[in-house]
Structure formats: structure tokens, C-alpha cells
Amino acid sequence: xxxxxxxxxxxxxxxxxxxxxxxxxxxxxxxxxxxxxxxxxxxxxxxxxxxxxxxxxxxxxxxxxxxxxxxxxxxxxxxxxxxxxxxxxxxxxxxxxxxxxxxxxxxxxxxxxxxxxxxxxxxxxxxxxxxxxxxxxxxxxxxxxxxxxxxxxxxxxxxxxxxxxxxxxxxxxxxxxxxxxxxxxxxxxxxxxxxxxxxxxxxxxxxxxxxxxxxxxxxxxxxxxxxxxxxxxxxxxxxxxxxxxxxxxxxxxxxxxxxxxxxxxxxxxxxx
Length: 272
Description:
Blueprint: H1 2-8, E1 12-16, H2 27-32, E2 35-40, E3 48-53, E4 63-64, E5 77-82, E6 85-91, H3 101-119, E7 125-130, H4 154-165, E8 168-170, H5 171-175, E9 184-185, H6 191-194, E10 197-198, E11 201-206, E12 213-218, E13 234-238, E14 248-252
Parallel strand pairs: 1-14, 6-7
Antiparallel strand pairs: 1-3, 2-3, 4-5, 5-6, 7-11, 8-11, 9-10, 12-13, 13-14
Helix pairs in contact: 3-4
């Protein structure tokens, strides 16, 4: 994470699956790197946070937890006002399998998101994170491979469409209508190096901010090397003209305990 902050120096970062207890979150280390952390930590599983660079204004209206979310006990939503923009970091429930109770919880969570975003209509907002949904067939390496599984079902995609209809746009698809880039690759069988991935990490931007979208790309370098996350960071840049917005808003996953080395043979996937 510190390497990422030094390289990109984003104004704000949205983190998911931090997997840390509240009293163990590395506030001091991040502060030393020039970032204030607003975390919602739940221990072993889940956990979300927003990192804000020194000098970027943060409101005191912080929200931990999503109104109406299912009672799973996980920390999956944190929200704050950053330079006048409502910024949320979200880690949507995976769902596991279609017959698992967590899949029903996933749909309920998405419905709660829809209701909450409706209350933000008229307020500039950005929601970044792991949505655990591939919005369309362009967003998976082989649609047939995922039939019968989560992340691509009509129910999940319909709820994502409803989120967009509530007044937001998918930043990447807004800028890249036909683009094929992924944010997640399975650790197994060299999926990353073979280009077998999914685009499930999204940045939803309110319609009033969408005209200022300058860039939305994926930094694949942070999916390489030892102990990477299975996700790559998604970066967006928004120009608000004379108004101030974090010039870069990033959604990222801390490194995990697995190791995957080797040269990347599929640089065509890299965002320009």
C-alpha cells in the first residue's frame, strides 16, 4: 500500500477487504506516509477504508455501515465527504453460490445501495470498490465459463443497472464503451498471465460529475510479483473545473498472503 501511495500520490483511496481489527488498523503508518485513514474495520473478514491525502478537506459526516444492509456483521461500507464530494468505499458480498444464503444477502445489500444512492441524488458522489459483479459479457474472459455461478446472474446485473438508473454512471464503461480490461484474476492456473479475468471492481460516479471524467484505468503492476492481491487497483481522475475534487480516486485491495511470480505476457490488458 505504501508503495502504491508513493507511486500514484492519489488524493483519496478506497480500500476493501482490509481484514483487520479496529485497534490494529495501521493509522500511524499511513499518517507517516501523508494520509489520514477513515476505516470501518471488522476483524478477520471484510473491512473497508478511505485514505485521504494531507491537505484534502474531509467533512465530519462519516458513515460506517450501509442503511438497510443485511445483518451479516461484516464491515462493508464507509462513506465521507471529501472536498464536497460524497465518497464511499464498498465491498459487496460475494454471494458464494446461487443456493447459498449469502447470495440472497448480496441481493439485499445491492437493494440497500440502490435506496441509499437515491437519497444522494443531487449530491456529487463517487462509490468505489469491489462490487463482485461483472456488468456485462465484455467484462469476463469467457461468458460461458461463468454460467451457473455468481457475479454474472441476471438478478445481480439487473440490480447494478438499477444503481446506475438511480443517477450514476460506470466510470470505466463511460470512457471505454467497448474496452476489455479486467480488475480481478483467479490465482489458479496462471489466469493473470493468460488474461483470464473479470472486471468486478467499479467506480460509480454521479451524473453531475460524469462530464468531468478524464481517466479510468487499471494498474496491473500491483497484481504482479510476490504476495499480490488477486485484484488490481482501479484509478479514476475527475476534472471539476474551478471546483475541487480529489484529482485521483482509487479503489485498491491490500496485498494478500498468496504468492504469484512470473513475467506478465499480456500487456495488452494494461490500461492506457
